[in-house]
Amino acid sequence: MDALRRPLLKGAGATGTLAAALAAGVLKPSQVLAADINRAAFEVKDLAGALKGIGAAGAAESKDVVIRAPDIAENGAVVPVDVASNIPNTISLAVLVDKNPFPLTTAFDFANGAVPEMALRVKMGQTSLVEAVAKTADGKFYIAKKEVKVTVGGCGG
Amino acid sequence: MADPMKIRAQMKGDTADIRVLMSHAMETGQRKDNAGNTVPAHYIQSITVDVGGKRVLQGQTGPAISRNPVFGFKVKGAKAGDKVVINWVDNKGEKRTDEATVG
Predict the structure, then answer these.
(1) How far is A83 from chain B (nearest CA, A)?
(2) Given CB atoms, is A31 within the 8 Å cutoff of chain B?
């Protein structure tokens, strides 16, 4: 079923899917959060492509997007990452790991009082930049980056 | 069927601090087993969080989220006693919904 669904989604594009869902009455407008995150962005293998996939190709660097992650992660399978946005009207946050096979790890939308902040644990294949992208209600994107060194084999690096 | 999620939701000032531990293998589809066969991808793709009957968070995840994912969120304006409902769906269509109460 997935094999069929994938190209359909890609073809229709995010807005098409959303419009169809609206037309079908599946989603009430008040419930529409980030249904426009394009699932295909999770299958893109390079960072630039993944950023483009979530619409953040020209994101401006900002100190108001905060990433808390260890400088050195001993276990690349579980790297704790906290991201937060201090930019007013942030409606969505995405986390990317530059050198992972698929850089986009997650994207969340916030509404109804949810604070644009989240804590998660990601897998990292190797030392890489971790990037957080914040999207504001007016459609602007802001990005922050932090390098996390991954120690292989638990040598304590 | 996957094991239940562990959800903790506590008020801190006017903000509810929600932490959830999901029980999931989060296979990336990149790993090989001992026989050299690729282990098929099996990971959570979408997550929703409702507090007090309102959808507060909705997210998509890829395979790079760690096994047995842990997420932490903060929701302003929630009150003690509000119901927290968290749902996930994985790439094989399996799903799970669990509830907790803000304390």
Answers:
(1) 10
(2) yes
Is residue B12's pLDDT more than 80? yes
Q: Which pLDDT tens digit goes with each residue over B27-83?
A: 998 888 889 899 999 999 999 999 999 999 999 999 999 999 999 999 999 999 999
Does residue A30 or residue A105 have the better pLDDT? Answer: A105
| Domain limits for position A136 | 58-150
Interface ipTM: 0.92
**Other CB atoms closer than 10 Å to residue A13's CB: what's the count?**
13
The C-alpha of A31 sits at a distance from chain B's nearest C-alpha, in angstroms, of: 7
3-state DSSP assignment of residue A18: helix
d(CA B85, CA B80): 14
Give residue for tokens 């169809």: A20
Q: Which amino acid is at A50?
A: A
- Whether chain B has a CB inside 8 Å of the CB on A122: the answer is yes
Considering only residues A125 and B19, tell me which one the structure prediction assigns the higher pLDDT: B19
A117 belongs to a structural domain: yes
Q: Is A73 on the interface with B (CB under 8 A)?
A: no
A102 vs B contacts (CB less than 8 Å): 62-64
CATH number for the domain including A113? 2.60.40.2470
Query: Which residues of B are less than 8 Å from A105 in CB distance?
Result: 61-62, 64-65
Q: Which domains does chain B have, with CATH numbers?
A: 6-30+38-101 (2.60.40.10)
Spatial distance between the Cα atoms of A40 and A37, rounded to a whole number of angstroms: 9
* Summary mean pLDDT of chain A: 80
Residues A75-107 have pLDDT tens digits of: 899 999 999 999 999 999 999 999 999 999 999
Interface residues from chain B to A (CB-CB < 8 Å): 15, 19, 26, 28, 30, 45, 47, 49, 51, 54-67, 69-78, 91, 93
The total of structural domains in chain A comes to 1
Are A124 and A150 spatial neighbours (Cβ–Cβ below 8 Å)? yes
